[in-house]
Amino acid sequence: MVRARDDDEEDMRDFVKIAFAPIAAPEAGALVVFVGEDLELSEAAAALLPGAKALIKAAAEPGKFKGKPSMSLDILAPHGLSVSRLVVIGLGGEKDRAELDFVTLGGLVMGKIPGGSEATILFDFPFEIANLPAAAADFTLGVRLRAYRFEIYKTKKPDDEEKDKPAAITIAIKDPAAAKREAKARDAVADGVVLARNLVNEPPNVLNPEEFARRAAELEELGVEVEILDEKALGKLGMRALLAVGQGSHYESSVVIMRWHGAKSSKAKPIAFIGKGVCFDTGGISIKPAGGMEDMKGDMAGAACVVGLMHALAARKAKVNAVGAIGLVENMPDGRAQRPGDIVKSLSGQTIEIINTDAEGRLVLADLLWHVASKYKPQGMIDLATLTGAILVALAQEYSGLFSNDDDLAAKLEAAGKATGEKVWRMPLAKAYDKMIDSKFADVKNTGGRHGGSITAAQFLQRFVDGTPWAHLDIAGSAMGSPASETSQGWASGWGVRLLDRLVADNYEK
Ligand code: BES
Ligand code: MN
Ligand code: ZN
Question: Which of 47, 371, 390, 447 shows its CA 20 to 30 Å from the CA of 130?
Answer without folding.
Answer: 47
